[in-house]
């Protein structure tokens, strides 16, 4: 159960960049459902990467046009869809902001898979160009629009590194004593574990710079791993179904385990499974974004940073929960990633909780939702796409060569 969000009462006009994606689509519907006016921007690059990888969402997602038409039929509400590339179509982005005059822009439009970002030099370069270029374009476009638009960016828990700070990870900033003895508050040091995670660290510096230089109002949400498929809104009509990634590059760990459990194939635990990570349910992603949209920082305030997580869990404990529920065994395979085999992770999420979020935790009741979705669309699964297909370096690729 979730409490009502701390709502200032006024409805906003929100541009959702990346609104066709896994987090962006349910968030767009939630914002629309709550009475905000939503404009989705997406260049459909995620759908194109599926084509490139020979994969597809397990759920049969409809085109953006069909999706927004179905939402209109179901809710009576309009969502506009605009196809443009945030990293490339700069003039169109400025024009859109000037014409629509949104209160906020929610920025999901980045290449978000760590494994894909490590696949090839081409994928590494694309991820940096797309993500850092897009973040910079957005800041420039807000400045050029001469409007006081609040930017809400989806960052990642991965900017902190995992267990590197030795205590509870605060929300974005740490107090330090600088050489010479002066006290200061600085961004938490960045310890990215992939090219993708590195782009989020670079984004964070851009937000900090543009806030200081141009007084942009920016919220950066350090989100954990999202799990689940549908939300109350996407469940309203089959044409609104959310995407579900299960492949080795884009599938995230809990959704992959739930899919593997439902398919009766061994769970792919990388290494010892001692990696501790933060998790959040997709329904809470949408709710957190609305809370962030409703609570912008004041002009001149430093970048607002929230940790957008419900709880932390060890990968092998998550595997155990799914194994117990499904009777499928956990298979410990060589880790394709260069990461700490075991880490602790303790994270503060006080800010969202203080604003009314009562987060959904990993419980097997909600696992059923994903399991049912997987069973329903089982025939669409390509079993050859389940094993990891990207390796952090040559050593990892060699160690993984024996996996079958
Ligand atoms: P996704 O790939 O499903 O969605 C991203 C969307 O952005 C896609 O529809 C894609 O086509 C679009 N896009 C990408 N580059 C674009 C560009 N240059 N111009 C226009 N559109 C573009 O990813 P997601 O899982 O929905 O993640 C959304 C955001 O949330 C990402 O920034 C990601 O880093 C962050 N995040 C995701 C998770 C997770 O577990 N899924 C966890 C933490 C943070
Ligand atoms: N893992 C397995 N088996 C699998 C898949 C993953 O053991 O089949 C392990 C990985 O080695 C890793 C952990 O599970 O230690 C998490 O992997 P993941 O793919 O679920 O998550 P990650 O690569 O960190 O990326 C995802 C999203 C990304 C987001 C991030 C939030 O794709 O966009 O930023 O979660 S966080 O992890 O908190 O930084």
Automatic annotation (TrEMBL):
Domain NAD-dependent epimerase/dehydratase: 14-299
Family statement: Belongs to the NAD(P)-dependent epimerase/dehydratase family.
Domain of life: Eukaryota
The UniProt record lists the keyword DNA-binding: no
Official protein name in the record: Sulfoquinovose synthase, chloroplastic
Keywords assigned by UniProt, alphabetized: Membrane, Transmembrane, Transmembrane helix
Shown part of the complete sequence: 69 to 472 of 493
Keyword field contains Flavoprotein: no
């Amino acid at each position: 159960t979730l409490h009502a969000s701390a709502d200032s009462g006024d409805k906003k006009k929100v541009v959702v960049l990346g609104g066709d994606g896994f987090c962006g689509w349910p968030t767009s519907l939630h914002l629309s459902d709550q009475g905000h006016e939503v404009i989705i921007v997406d260049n459909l690059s995620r759908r194109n990467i599926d084509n490139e990888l020979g994969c597809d969402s397990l759920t049969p997602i409809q085109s953006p046009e069909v999706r927004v038409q179905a939402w209109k039929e179901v809710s009576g509400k309009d969502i506009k869809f605009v196809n443009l590339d945030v990293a490339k179509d700069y003039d169109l982005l400025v024009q859109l902001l000037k014409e629509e005059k949104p209160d906020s822009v929610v920025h999901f439009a980045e290449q978000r898979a760590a494994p894909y970002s490590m696949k090839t030099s081409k994928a590494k370069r694309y991820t940096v160009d797309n993500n850092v270029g897009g973040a910079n374009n957005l800041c420039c476009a807000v400045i050029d629009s001469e409007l006081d638009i609040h930017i809400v960016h989806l960052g990642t828990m991965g900017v902190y590194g995992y267990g590197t700070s030795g205590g509870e990870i605060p929300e974005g900033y740490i107090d330090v004593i600088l050489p010479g003895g002066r006290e200061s508050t600085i961004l938490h040091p960045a310890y990215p574990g992939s090219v993708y995670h590195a782009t989020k660290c670079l984004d964070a510096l851009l937000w900090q710079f543009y806030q200081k230089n141009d007084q942009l109002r920016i919220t950066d949400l350090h989100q954990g791993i999202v799990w689940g498929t549908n939300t109350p809104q996407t469940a309203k009509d089959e044409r609104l179904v959310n995407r579900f990634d299960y492949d080795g590059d884009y599938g995230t760990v809990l959704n992959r385990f739930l899919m593997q459990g439902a398919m009766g194939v061994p769970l792919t635990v990388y290494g010892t499974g001692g990696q501790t990570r933060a998790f959040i349910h997709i329904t809470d992603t949408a709710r957190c974004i609305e809370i962030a949209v409703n609570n912008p920082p004041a002009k001149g305030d430093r970048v607002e940073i929230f940790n957008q997580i419900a709880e932390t869990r060890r990968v092998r404990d998550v595997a155990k929960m799914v194994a117990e529920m499904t009777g499928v065994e956990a298979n410990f395979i060589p880790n394709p990633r260069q990461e700490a085999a075991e880490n602790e992770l303790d994270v503060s999420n006080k800010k969202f909780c203080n604003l009314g979020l009562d987060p959904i935790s990993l419980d097997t009741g909600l696992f059923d939702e994903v399991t049912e979705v997987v069973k329903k669309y089982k025939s669409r699964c390509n079993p050859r796409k389940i094993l990891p297909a990207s390796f952090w370096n040559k050593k990892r690729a060699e160690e993984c060569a024996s996996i079958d």
